[in-house]
Amino acid sequence: MLYLSRKMTFSAAHSYRIDSWTEEENRRVFGPCSNINGHGHDYTLKTMVKGPIQVDSGIVINITEVDQTVKAVVHEELDGKFLNKENPYFEEHIPTTEHIISFLWDALESKMKGYQLHRLTLHENDFLYSEKGEGSMVYLTRKYHFSSAHRLHSEYLSEEENVSLFGKCNNVYGHGHNYYLEVTVAGQPDPVTGMIIDLAELDQAVEATVLKKFDHKHLNLDTEEFKGVNPTSENVTVVTWNLLKPVIPRLYKIGLYETEKNYFEYYGSEKE
C-alpha cells in the first residue's frame, strides 16, 4: 500500500451560533466566532489517498484525478460561500473545523475509484487544524508558542560525557528556543456546538498549566518540573503531556517543535 497526498486551498465565511440561545450564551461559548455577520478563513486542505501501485504505470492514481475530484466537491460546496447560509448541511450543523472535515470526508469517500481516502487534514489557520481518517474519530490540534532557555546536562554522565553528547547545548549558561507546542484532542463533535472541546477552555488550560510555567523561563533554573530532569525536548514533551492529561480528558497527542528541524511527539504511556 502506498500513500500520496494533494494540497489545495479555498476561502469561506461562517458563523458559530445557536439561534435558540441568547446573545450572551452564544458569546460565552463561541466568543467572537458568534458574530452574526460571520467571519472567514483561507483554508488549506490536504487529501491523502492510498492504494496499490499499478504494475503497468508505476503509479497508484494520476494525482490530477485526485485533484479534480477534491476540487469539484470543494468548489461546489464550500469555496467562496457563507457556509451557514449557502450549504444545507451547515444550516443544520455549526461549521466548525471538526464539522467541515467530517462533511468533506463523507462527500469524498465514495468518489474515490481504484484507490481509497486515507486521511483529510484541514487547516483553518496556522494555529488550528482538524484531521479525520477512517472511523468516526475526529482530531483537533491547537498550536501554541513559548520561549524558554535550557541547558542539556545529565547528572548521570561525567562532564566529558555531557560535552561529548550535547556539545554546545551543554553550555553552562544555557541557550534558548522558540518552542511551538501542538495539543491534539480526539473525539466526535458535540451534536449541539459542533466542537470536540471548548477552545476557550482548552486555551485557558494550556495557558495556566504549561505556558505560565515555561514561557520566558530557564527550564533548569526556574521550574519545579525540571529540577533533576534533563530538559531535552523529549522530556519537555512528556512533562507537558503529564501536566495536561489531568485537565484535558480528551488529550490524544502532544507535538513539540524545538526548531523547524526538530519535532517530537508523545501519545502517553498507555498508548505505547
From TrEMBL:
User: EC number(s) per UniProt?
Assistant: 4.1.2.50
Q: In which pathway does it act?
A: Purine metabolism; 7-cyano-7-deazaguanine biosynthesis
- Keywords assigned: Lyase, Metal-binding, Zinc
Q: Which cofactor does it need?
A: Zn(2+)
Molecular function GO terms recorded: 6-carboxytetrahydropterin synthase activity; 6-pyruvoyltetrahydropterin synthase activity; metal ion binding
The UniProt record lists the keyword Metal-binding: yes
Query: Which transformation does this protein catalyse, written as a reaction?
Result: 7,8-dihydroneopterin 3'-triphosphate + H2O = 6-carboxy-5,6,7,8-tetrahydropterin + triphosphate + acetaldehyde + 2 H(+)
User: Is Metal-binding among the key words of this record?
Assistant: yes
Name the domain of life this protein comes from. Answer: Bacteria
Query: What general EC class does the enzyme of this chain belong to?
Result: lyase
GO terms classed as biological process: tetrahydrobiopterin biosynthetic process
Q: Family per UniProt?
A: Belongs to the PTPS family. QueD subfamily.
Protein's UniProt name: 6-carboxy-5,6,7,8-tetrahydropterin synthase
